[in-house]
Specification:
Elements (H helix, E strand, L loop, with lengths): L2 H4 L3 H4 L6 E11 L4 E12 L4 E5 L6 H8 L7 E10 L2 E2 L5 H10 L1 E4 L3 H4 L6 H11 L5 H14 L5 H4 L9 H13 L5 E5 L7 H18 L2 E6 L2 H7 L2 E6 L2 E7 H6 L4 H8 L35 H5 L12 E5 L2 E4 L12
Parallel strand pairs: 3-8, 3-9, 6-7, 7-8
Antiparallel strand pairs: 1-2, 1-4, 4-5, 9-10, 10-12, 11-12
């Protein structure tokens, strides 16, 4: 039974150390306008075989968290502090050469907009073979056969022919399957999927998500699924981290998080999801705008948009940032409503 099915988080279901543990990660961009705190104190863990959802609005730091884990942050960005422990070793302490071996062999990442990620001038088979070649998997002929097998594994019909296609000769859904095949080529322990279905229609989106789930089940790998789509998270994830303005504001197993979200931001995200069969004159929206990451509000980052702060007359939110606390067993939240005695204050 998966964590999603039994309603427990990884903290309750496994005594093993996490496959990946991110501790107080901070990645800043130093610009002429000021310091952009793109990732500002993010912590979470991913267990083997788990699907961890990372969800939030565009610009909240989801993708930059993933790029920081893989040490792919471009200038003027820099990881300024924190730890990224993978199999017990801090990736931030590894050399560039050591990180090259980690990427692909142990941690793979697939991106949104697959046709932008694939090289348009090379056949997809050539690009798959190159992934295998870089990591010295086998001789060329064996790698070519493996490329065909990988396309078959991700459900591309007639892979012997498709292996000779250029990216522009494939649909968006097929191109995304090629990206997943490249990510799976070296049987990684962790697959990071960054908005893997954003550019796809609903039918193809469902197929891609089913494929990721099936590969997780068959290979036992962990998946870090980054998305802004709460529906995708509800369907796929065992446990969810909700991010806002560069930091995590809530974490819980999927069912408790959707049944009883604690943070006002999470409540707003879930309330804004259209429900089939329910007709609303207008969708619920979260008022206001995401804060400028160069000039954060002095207290809680969500305070300027928070209806609950006004309803409960909380002034502390405007001057002091809350800590992440365990409001319920396995359910963590960063909100003053649950400090100093818990939910009775709410």
């Amino acid at each position: 039974m998966s964590d999603k099915q039994n309603g427990n988080t990884h903290k309750d279901t496994s005594s093993e150390p996490p496959l990946l543990e991110v501790r107080d990660l901070r990645t800043y961009f130093f610009t002429r306008e000021g310091t952009v705190k793109a990732v500002d104190g993010v912590s979470f863990a991913v267990q083997r075989g788990e699907i961890r959802g990372i969800v939030g609005e565009s610009g909240c730091g989801k993708s930059m968290t993933a790029l920081s884990i893989l040490r792919l942050v471009d200038k003027p960005g820099r990881i300024v502090s924190g730890e990224v422990c993978f199999k017990g070793e801090d990736l931030l302490e590894k050399s560039a050469q050591e990180m090259t071996k980690v990427r692909g062999e142990q941690i793979s990442m697939i991106f949104q907009e697959p046709k932008s990620s694939l090289n348009p001038v090379f056949r997809v088979g050539t690009q798959l073979v190159e992934v295998l070649k870089v990591h010295h998997v086998a001789k060329r002929k064996a790698n070519e056969l493996r490329a065909v097998e990988l396309l078959r594994e991700v459900g591309i019909p007639d892979p012997e022919r498709r292996v000779s296609n250029y990216p522009h000769e494939m649909s968006g859904g097929m191109a995304q399957r090629v990206m997943i095949a490249m990510g799976m080529a070296l049987a990684p322990d962790l697959l990071i999927a960054d908005e893997p279905t954003t550019a796809l229609d609903v039918t193809i989106q469902a197929q891609v998500l089913d494929l990721i789930r099936r590969l997780r089940d068959e290979h036992g790998m962990a998946v870090m699924l980054i998305t802004h789509d709460m529906g995708v998270v509800a369907e796929m994830a065992d446990i969810v981290t909700v991010m806002y303005a560069g930091t995590a504001v809530e974490e819980a197993a999927t069912e408790p998080l959707f049944d009883e979200p604690l943070h006002p931001y999470t409540q707003g995200l879930i309330a804004s999801i259209p429900v089939m069969g329910q007709i609303k004159e207008r969708l619920d929206v979260i008022p206001g705008n995401v804060p400028n990451l160069i000039d954060m509000p002095p207290g809680c980052r969500f305070a300027p948009r928070c209806r609950a702060r006004v309803e409960h007359g909380l002034t502390r939110c405007e001057v002091e940032e809350p800590h992440m606390i365990e409001a319920r067993p396995g359910h963590f939240v960063r909100c003053w409503l649950y400090e100093d005695g818990g939910e009775d204050n709410a």
